[in-house]
C-alpha cells in the first residue's frame, strides 16, 4: 500500500498496520484525533507520544516512516536531472548576501558563530535552500527532506568549524535532522510557513483535544542509550509490607550519619536502591515524602548519597568531574563580559546559562542563571531562607554563601530542605543536576536548553540545535 496525502483516517490506520506494529490503543487514538494523510505528515515527537507510541524505538520507527511518506508525497525528485550540485560553492553564495561577509569573517577569526551571527547565517542558508527548491519545482518554503539534508551536509563540509564532533551523531543534525524534523533549517522554515497565507500552506494541521498522556520528563533520549532510569525490570514484591529491606531502611532513617558509620550507610543505601527506585516510580510520592523517608539524602556527607543514587540509577553516564572541567576555559572564552568571579567553575556555568537561549519564555534576558544560583552574604540563616524563599524562585537551586566574586559555601535547596554540598562549585552543581534525575523533577522551562548541554556530554543524548552549535564551536576555541 503506497502512501497518499489524501488518505482518510481509516486508510491511515490500514497503512500503518502494514508498516509497523499498531496496538488497539494507538488505533483508537488515531481515530479519536482524526489523523488523516495530511495530518500524519505533520506529526512531531510529542504528537507521537500522545497517540500512544510510548517507547523510544516506536517513536523512531514512526519518525522514519513519516520521513519516507514526506519524500513520497513530494514526488520523485528532479534533482538528479541537474548537473550542478544544489549547494556548490555555498561559501561564495553566502558572501553575496547582506551580512554574509561579516558572519563568515567572525567564524574564520573566532572559530564559532555568536547567537546573532547564527541567526543571520541560517536565514541566508534557508533563503538559498528555498530558491533551489523552487527551481526544482517544489512549493515555496516546502523543500524536500533530501534537499534539506544536502544543505546541512554542505554547511559542515564547507565550514568544518560548524560540524558537531559528538560521538553517535551525524555532525550536521543541528542544522537538519531528518528523523526528528528539527534543526536550525527546519526551525526557520516553520517560521516562514507561519507567515504564509492559509491558502498557500501545504499542510493544514487539525486542532486536537488535549490528551492525559504525557511523558514524565522534559527531555528526549537517544535510541541506543538507556538513560531514563525507569525501564529496568524491578521486583514488585520488594514493596510488600514484610520486605526484609524495610528494617534496614528504618535503621537508615533513625541513624545519625558520622565518619564511623559512613561505610554502613552507603552499603544500606545500595542494598535498598531497588526498593527505593520502585517506590518512587509506583507510589504517589512528592519530593517532601521522599526526603522525609530518606533524610540521609539531606544531611549525609555533603550530598554524597545523591551522587551514589545517581550513579546506581545511570551506570552508563559519563563522569561529570572528568568530562566538564576540560571545557571550562573554552566556555569562558565564549563570553568575556560575564560577572567577575574567582571561581572558574562557577563562572563557566554562569556563562553557559547566558549563552544558551531559554525555550519559548518571556521575561528579562539574563535572569536564567538566578534560577540556578541564589547568592547571599555570609551569616545568612540558610534554613530560614529555604523556608521563606520567594515563591517565584524555582527549585531545586543552589544557595551560594559569599560574594559572587568569591563564593565560600554551597547549599542545595530541595523543597524547603537544605542539603549542604560543600565548597566546590562543580560538585555542588553536579548534585543539583543529579537531583532532577533521581527525584523525577522536571527542569525549569527556561533552563531546559542549559541542562540539555549536560545531557549531551554526559548521556550522549541528542543535543538541541543551539547546544550542538555550541559543542561544535568548543572544538575550535
Question: What can be said about this structure in brief?
Answer:
By secondary structure, the protein is mainly alpha-helical.
Structural overview:
The chain is mostly helical. About 50% of the residues lie in helices and about 5% in strands. It folds into four domains: about 10-75, DNA polymerase, domain 1 (Orthogonal Bundle); about 85-200, no CATH class; about 235-305, no CATH class; about 320-475, no CATH class. The chain is built from 23 helices and four strands. It has a four-stranded mixed β-sheet with strand order 1-2-3-4, sandwiched between helices. A hairpin with a 2-residue loop joins strand 3 (about 410-415) and strand 4 (about 415-420). Helix 22 (about 450-460) crosses helix 23 (about 465-475). The termini are far apart. Mean pLDDT is about 85; it is low at about 75-85 and about 205-235.
DSSP summary: helix tally: 23
Tell me about the biggest sheet?
A: 4 strands, mixed
Structural class: mainly alpha
Helical content (DSSP H or I, runs of 4+)? 40-55%
Q: Spans of 5+ residues with little confidence (pLDDT < 50)?
A: 76-83, 204-233
Q: What fraction strand?
A: under 5%
